[in-house]
């Protein structure tokens, strides 16, 4: 008996991975959307997540360079444009910097990545390495977390707007375009994986790639929660003003 899944069974398995392992379940995400995070934690989240945003077009350029089919490249290159924009000041990365600006973070410090937690750097690096070293099919499959991002973005945006008075719709402008882009991108990637995963091994590799990506997103939030809620940040990492006050009071 073959353990080859049908395309719809494969999709079902992938959706199960998201339902049980995506970062919408992470305690830090739940605190962020419920208003329980301190201002410093919100700042630390935005600063660390900048590193992930900044790596996305680079990882998509790696994937693009591995595609032999021009039609496929035409589809994929839109992702790079979405993040980098067509010119200075446009695109997702510029919008993320609007968020960190509004939170009062120094742009140069954010962009240098120097204040990010070590685990954030390791996680982002692991994503880049994964798409470089694994098969093209696995690299494409690792983007499938975007199947689930519209739902977490909607909850996060409405929760943050309701619970933090220093956060406005303009501050969170990054997220306005993302759900539509994520749906377009993940529909395409899902279709690609369903068509190209033709053996049980390939199907298992696709599922494992999505699990890997979920674990990478989870690890970033684990690190944030540990450093800024329970313990203290790595000596060279970002230290929010409210945490400095807390430490002074201890
Ligand atoms: O806000 C989020 O929770 C979230 C999650 C993800 C994701 O699931 O990887 C992405 C994004 N946002 C996002 O904005 C984005 O551009 C993006 C690109 C990718 C990818 O792997 O190619 N994931 C995500």
Verbal overview:
The chain is mainly alpha-helical and 250 residues long. The protein has a single domain (7-243), classed as Heme Oxygenase, Chain A, CATH 1.20.910.10. 73% of the residues lie in helices and 0% in strands. It has 12 helices and no strands. The protein has helices at 7-21, 27-34, 39-66, 70-84, 92-102, 107-112, 118-133, 136-141, 149-163, 174-196, 200-230, 241-249. The longest helix has 31 residues, at 200-230. The model has no long low-confidence stretch (mean pLDDT 96). The structure holds pyrroloquinoline quinone.
Number of helices: 12
Helix content: over 70%
Class from helix and strand fractions? mainly alpha
Number of domains: 1
Going by CATH, the homologous superfamily would be Heme oxygenase-like
Describe the largest sheet.
none
> For the terminal residues, how far apart are their CA atoms?
64 Å
Looking at the structure, the CATH topology is Heme Oxygenase, Chain A
Short structural description:
With 250 residues, the protein is an all-alpha fold. It is 73% helix and 0% strand.
Please specify the SSE layout and strand pairing.
Elements: H1 7-21, H2 27-34, H3 39-66, H4 70-84, H5 92-102, H6 107-112, H7 118-133, H8 136-141, H9 149-163, H10 174-196, H11 200-230, H12 241-249
Helix pairs in contact: 1-11, 2-9, 3-4, 3-5, 3-7, 3-11, 7-11, 9-10
Keywords:
single chain, about 250 residues, mainly alpha, Heme Oxygenase, Chain A, 12 helices, about 75% helix, binds pyrroloquinoline quinone
